[in-house]
Amino acid sequence: MILCITEKPSVGQTIAQILGANVRRNGYFEGNGYWVSWTFGHLCTLKDPSDYTDVWKRWALSSLPMIPPRFGIKLINDRGVEQQFKVLCQLIADCDEIINCGDAGQEGELIQRWVMQKAGCKKPVKRLWISSLTDEAIKTGFLNLRPEKDLEPLYLAGLCRAIGDWLLGINATRLYTLKYASERGHILSVGRVQTPTLAMIVNRQKEIENFVPKDSWELKTKYRDTVFTAQLKAFETEDKGKIAVEKIIGETFKVTDIQKKAGKEEPPRLMDLTSLQVECNKKYGYSADETLKLIQTLYERKVTTYPRVDTTYLPEDMYPKCGGILNGLKDYQQLLEPLRGKKLKKSKKTFDNSKITDHHAIIPTGVQFPADLGERERNVFDTVARHFIAAFYPECKFTQTTVKGKTGNVDFKTSGKVINDLGWKIIFNNKATADEKEKETEDDKKILPEFTLGESGPHSPFLAKKTTQPPKYYTEATLLRAMETAGSQVGDEALREALKANGIGRPSTRAAIIEILFKRGYIVRERKALKATQAGVDLINLIHEELLKSPKLTGIWEGRLREIERGQYAPQDFIDQLKQHIQSITTAVISDSSNRRIQTELSKPIKKSGSSKPKKGEK
Predict the structure, then answer these.
(1) pLDDT of residue 444
(2) From the centroid of its chain, how far is CA 187?
């Protein structure tokens, strides 16, 4: 018998139907030479400190840092988990071969391999690697099973991530709690990813609170109902500006130059998980966690591809399949009409094998949208579908016009854009996407009348007061972007793609990290703005060790994990470096004689069992 192990019962049922394993048993399906069983996500986890030695049961500075000689795994203490694990153990013992059907990603690989290790599996294992749960994708996947060894680097990267989070999260949390907590029995939660993320929010908040606005005055004039701006440095005082106005009152305004330049705007990129979360937060107000759950549902219902991805590209061999996928979008036929009878556009910004690792961008599968899915799922699907359709539309074409004029000795200029062909913007109701709207300038929105070179006439000069503005509070959308680029402020899509290698967290975990900060009481949401609580501010102020709170340093660790995933960096080197980091941090904190303390009213009390291991997903 061949045993297939999926990550969820629902996926197990889908695969069982395709394989003809139609007899339901206790914890698995059977038939046609197959057993199909499942996990419930994680069945196993890394051992707690107390599992290694009784010395680590008690929280004490003298026992830090806790570095096990060899990390071990254990079964999660849950009755349902224990029952399903017994089923899997029996099936693993009795089968001839195993097909790992876990989610095709780092976390999925770790989940499945831990279960097989805990069960003492010695059977040959192959890997099902698919990007959607459609019948066609699953059947194709079973015809192209991969050797388990091919995915070894992926597993090692996931293992290093888990060990790194254990080493840093558990040790640092105990260290800072014991050294600085104002009340006995309360936790200061510190983590490899959550603390740098909190630091970004706190630092932005400090910038806003310490911001001192500065006024300046720009010289402008209105000619033919169009505002022109003087090509002068803004005046530091209003009085200086008034002198400049007086000098040109009554002078004639003359148009001295007209430049028209044709431009084009490419369609927006396809969706990865972060860009989908950003778009849905801006457009619908969905939290990152909500969007992840919604797109996961769409994946499991077969209408979109695998969601936990960080690429916006498709492999080139997907191109022949795209026409069929588009035809399957029954609710979008009107938008598809302009594409009928034409060869589909194939852009390097959409199809690029060099930008693909394990998965491609999130796209529709072409399967009809189920009627029983709700409005929120439909909104997320609509975002994915419209970006996919837009990829095959022509560019938006426009004319950028710059008009220069002069009055007295002062040169003026104004610019505007005229849309000549909406192109892909028709897909988004003649507008930019939510992510692009924030990049639009006033010139992008301004439409100019026709001017003639050399024309002249009266004008009305005036001063426009400008006041410098503080940076904006992070929203979930802008925080996700900042995590993606390790805190760098990047608007250019190509540069943002390049910085993803050293972003903090993974697309699949960033939503959970933000939720942890809410649960710990370190941040709150005010409308869309994310603000740090006093506890969050105090914690970041308390931490002097940059290794714990620097997004860029954490991003470097993330880059190493990606290199491990590609087989380009030694896992042991990564773990050894983390051990050295936690050793140096422990020494620095213990030797601190400042007697600092912070309030921890919002933090959770330490459980008497002594375990401080973060829950699943915490970093």
Answers:
(1) 60
(2) 28
CA atoms within 13 A on the CB side of 346: 13
How far apart CA 315 and CA 494 sit, in angstroms, is 18
Q: Give the residue among 66, 35, 86, 436 at the shortest CA–CA distance from 265.
A: 436
For residues 278 and 480, the answer to whether their CB atoms sit within 8 Å is: yes
| Largest Cα–Cα separation, the chain | 97
Work out the burial of residue 443: count CB atoms within 10 Å of its CB; fewer than 13 is exposed, 13-18 middle, 19 or more buried. Answer: middle
Query: Would you state the pLDDT for residue 446?
Result: 78
- Closest alpha carbon to 129 in 431, 343, 356, 332: 356
- The CA distance from 396 to 398, in Å, is 7
pLDDT per residue as tens digits for the range 43-59: 999 999 999 999 999 99
Residue 27: other Cβ atoms inside 10 A: 18
**Alpha carbon 149 to its chain's center:** 29
Residue 306 catalytic?
yes
Kindly report each contact of residues 232-240 with a partner whose C-beta sits within 8 Å and lies 24 or more positions away, as own/partner. 232/410, 234/466, 235/463, 238/463, 238/465
Distance CA 271, CA 283 (A): 15
Catalytic residue among 180, 286, 306, 313: 306
Pure H helices in 249-404:
273-284, 288-300, 319-327, 333-336, 375-390
Question: Rounded to an integer, what distance in angstroms lies between the CA atom of residue 442 and that of residue 446?
Answer: 6
| Predicted pLDDT of residue 618 | 42
List, for the chain, all residue ranges whose pLDDT scores fall below the cut of 50.
602-618
